[in-house]
Amino acid sequence: MDLLLLLVIVLGIAWQRKTSRRLARLEHELAALRQQLQGEHPSTKAIVETAIAAPNAEDRPAEADPGAPPLAMDTVADATASGEQVPQGEEIASHSFESTLGARWAVWVGGIALALGGIFLIRYSIEAGLIGPEARLVLAGIFGAILLASGEAVRRRMVPQVAARYSNAMIPGVLTAAGAVTLLGATYAAHGYYGFIGPAVAFALLALISLATLALSLLHGQALAGLGLAGSLLTPALVASNAPSAWALFTFLAVTWLASAAAARLRRWTIVPALANLGLGIWVMMYVFEAFPPDPLPPTLALLVMIAGSALVWPGRRFDDVPPEEETWWRFLRRRPLGISLSLALVTLLSAFALVAADDGATVLSVFAGASLMAALGAVGAARSHAVWPAILSAAGAVACIGLMALILLDHVPPVAADGSMPAPRGFGIEIAVSLLLGAVFTFLGFTFLRLHGDRGGKLASLWAVFMSAVPIAVATISFLNFGLLARDWTHGAYGLLLGTALLAAAQWRFRGSDAATGDRAANLVVLGSFAAFAFSLHALTNGVTTTILLSVLGICYIAATRWRPWPALPWAMGAALLLIFGRIAWEPTLVGPAQLGTSPFFNALLPGYGIPAVLAVLAAYGMRNWEDSRARNFLQALATLMVMMALAVLVRHAMNGGVLDDRVPTLGEQSIYTLLTVGLSATLMTLDLKAPSPVFRYGSMIAGVLATLNVLSLHVLALNPYLSGEGTGRWPFVNLLLIGYLLPALCYAGLAYYARDKRPRPYVAMLAIAGSVLGFLWATLSVRRFWHGENIADWKGFLANETYTYSVVWLLIGVVLLVLGSRFDARSLRIASAGLVIITVLKVFLVDMSNLEGILRALSFIGLGLVLMGIGLFYQKILARRPRMPGGLPEAPQDGS
Question: Where in this chain does the entry annotate a coiled-coil region (predicted)?
């Protein structure tokens, strides 16, 4: 088997030599082709020369491997376009296959064969007992040194064109790699298997060989650099020690990372730095979860070296080019060098989480280490415009680290002392300081980015404008809720005031350099961030209804500021204030707690808590009626409308339920008030739309009308109907529940339909008229039942004969009244409602009265029906006779189409 392996090695070397001769012949033919095209087509000549010449590493794209072959196919395409004769497609394909198989695979397989051959020779000597262990290791070292020397000798004699085209499959690089593997294997065997050298010597030799291999990669390419990096990262794992030192480990790893970064900068590599980041991160995770207890300082310093090196050594400023204006979010998230940036951000983020969670937050140093890593990563994102992922993940990681710290510390149980005594409770001053300081750092970093790259930062500038306020507010909120004084915390309150003031100053500085009327997106986001900071301060310093009122006051202050600063973001601050108020109401509708609310109708905490924000919302919407940005104007108008309706509804709810604000089902009287308010809102919005046209007023008025109609159909007609629910209607004959539940809403619907006739679409007006007719019909019908049955009109009481006859009379009268009104106002919807009601009465007389009534009542029912129907027919004949006729003899339709 060993002889067969040696034979394969010899054949591989012979095949490689044959391939080298064919490559030399190919270079000669290309040189002849260049001389032939020299005087014919200058452009084609330049292309061929570019394809043949060995370009420098600095002339290649930064993301490409220096050993990548030139684009020969593009050269052939250009030559074909210029009319030159080029090799046929079969010849090109044959050359590509031959180049891959002969010039690359042969070298790779040959290098692997050499390394395996050396290993198998050592194995053969062991099995045969020819030489001792010391001699084997010496021979292995000599063999590795010979391979290294051979690689250097061959490199010096390589043809430059071949070196440029096949750098990833260069014979010198493969020989050097095989020699490095042999030396690493021999050194590890001397320590791990035979124990000839101690851990310190073995560590030094392995590190030296790995770093030397990394240095030689500057001559032989990125693949050899990856081998040297892998050897360096594996060295600490291969060398066992009875007293491992975290400082020695991470010092060595930091030096290895710097060496790989320096080599990558000289050759502009992007793969090796990403692998170095991942390797260091793996070591940090292994140490943190294996050591007990871990020392957070050594890995933190090593990670800080990695972060600083990424900002200063490589890639540094290399990719800080100005992004295009039309850059999409997908291209933005893939800014070069994606591998380096993403690996750096992920390694730092996961390592920070591990450090914070490693010892259950028992030491302040672990918390400070995680915060320091997030701040340092954020500094890279702020200093470099290409560092998109460091910026994003540092902001998210900062908030997550503080949240993780809070969760761990709240569940942390301090260990019992040696004497059995319980330790003193731990204070939270350090945790508050770390949280607030980390937030302040991100505010400073955001300002730094806007100063350095704000004019050309694009989407990243907008993100930093968000991060410089969102991160400090988020971490301060976590700190306040977990470690602060919920009643009144001056530390967090002052922090919010200072942060808001600083953000306003930054916005003023930002707007000063741009158009004050529009500014830029980043400046407007900073303005909204200042509002968020002041809102946080209010929550830290106040509570209950006071906070709700002051939020609306804060929002109106931003509205007032539009008189001096026409910043587009100012009206949106008032919108944000109202949204926060809605959130507080959803969390606690009473604003002060059910026990402190009181039972007095209207004059309680709900009146200022809901009323003052509603009034200020209306003032804000009125003050912004001429604002240029229609979106902000419409947004404020919509929120003001909702705020007013909510205030009125809550006050009614409290008053109608005996001073209790809960989720019980409303009564018909309470629901009727809501319906009246909604109808009134629709009319108010319609009036406002006529004076100051706005889509909010236009569509809001119709939405209010539709909602009120849905309430009528679902609640007034069915769910809350006293006939079905059994609710008492009251003792008074006319002023009772039926009046407020049906007649008043019917009159309001009629008035709203008349008001909206020429202002809203016809179907909407018809809907209002029909809803009013239904409510009027129900009022009359239920009033008849109350007349015969008293206060309770529940369905279980059945029907009386006189009651049944009265229904027919009343329904016919209502039909006649609707017909008269429809004719008077030329409202077709009322005439249709009249016809429908008459049809219902006819069916009732023939189907119900005929079978249930007897004697004089049955006769009167049919006589009355006949007289009314004849009167209606006569009425229609007179109306149709008065209208002018069309040429075909038909009466002309009404002009308004109603």
Answer: none
| CA nearest to 686, candidates 760, 626, 748, 772 | 760
Tell me if 5 sits within 8 A of 117, measured CB to CB: yes
- The DSSP symbol for 565 reads -
In angstroms, the CA 264 to CA 226 distance is 11
Q: CA 56 to CA 52: how far, in whole Å?
A: 13
Q: What are the structure tokens assigned to 694, written together?
A: 């706005």
How many Å apart are CA 239 and CA 284, to the nearest integer? Answer: 17
Alpha carbon separation from 807 to 783, 804, 837, 838 (Å, rounded) = 10, 5, 12, 12
pLDDT band at residue 135, thresholds of 50, 70 and 90?
confident
Residues 6+ apart with CB under 8 A from 405: 356, 361, 367, 370, 431, 434
Q: Is 732 helix (H, G, I), strand (E, B) or coil?
A: coil
Tell me the DSSP string of 437-491: HHHHHHHHHHHHHHHHHTTT-THHHHHHHHHHHHHHHHHHHHHHHHHS-SS--HH
- What's the confidence (pLDDT) of residue 205? 84
Measured distance CA(538)–CA(493) in Å, rounded: 7
What mean pLDDT is reported for the chain? Answer: 79
Provide the CA 147 distance to its chain's centre, in angstroms.
55
Residue-range domain boundaries for the chain: 2-105, 799-898
Helix (H, G, I), strand (E, B) or coil at 542: coil
Dump the DSSP string for 303-347.
HHHHHHHHHHTSSTTTT-PPPPTT--HHHHHT-SSHHHHHHHHHH
Closest CA to 148 of 119, 170, 169, 172: 172
- pLDDT confidence tier of residue 802, bands split at 50, 70 and 90: confident
Reduced 3-state DSSP string for 778-817: HHHHHHHHHHHHCCCCCHHHCCCHHHHHHHHHHHHHHHHH
SS3 831: helix
Q: What is the pLDDT of residue 580?
A: 96
What's the chain's length in residues? Answer: 898
**Angle between helix 388-411 and 459-483 (nearest 10):** 10
d(CA 632, CA 627): 8
pLDDT at 15 over 60: no
pLDDT by residue (tens digit) across 711-737?
888 899 988 999 999 899 988 888 899
Query: Which of 79-83, 161-165, 503-507 bottoms out in mean pLDDT, i.e. has the lowest?
Result: 79-83
Task: Count Cβ atoms below 10 Å from residue 313 Cβ, excluding itself.
Answer: 18
Contacts of 57 (CB under 8 A, 6+ apart): 66, 267, 268
pTM of the predicted protein model = 0.76
pLDDT for position 497: 97
Between CA 726 and CA 732, with CA 729 as vertex, the angle to 5 degrees is 155
Cα dihedral 181, 185, 186, 191 sign: positive
* Residue range 665-677: mean pLDDT, rounded: 90
Using CA atoms, how far apart are residues 252 and 280, in angstroms rounded to an integer? 11
CA 519 – CA 507 distance, rounded (Å):
9
